[in-house]
Amino acid sequence: MSRLLDVYRKDCKAGELGQDDDALTFTYDSDYLPTDPVVVSVFLPKQDEPFPDGCDPAGSRRAHGKDIGAQHLLPVLKTVRNIIETRCAIVRRLLMAIDHSLHH
User: How far apart are CA 44 and CA 92, in angstroms?
Assistant: First the structure.
């Protein structure tokens, strides 16, 4: 089952974070790429192709003249995944409580 989370920078949709099984991906929104010069993260330089979980995006090692490979990207994506899972669990519990109160 694939889950998607819209990623915004200020009030503009910058892309989507996707989860399918244990893999995470990030894809910039096609409308965001040409309009905003700012990247979501130095680990995610602008590109049309999705960033797969565990990748070393083209150019990421050269961003800001530092060696910043995928080993730094994975913890960020895993933290985001944990936040998403926690929020989904909270929403499920709230919906169950609402359903329970409506039927009793």
Answer: 31
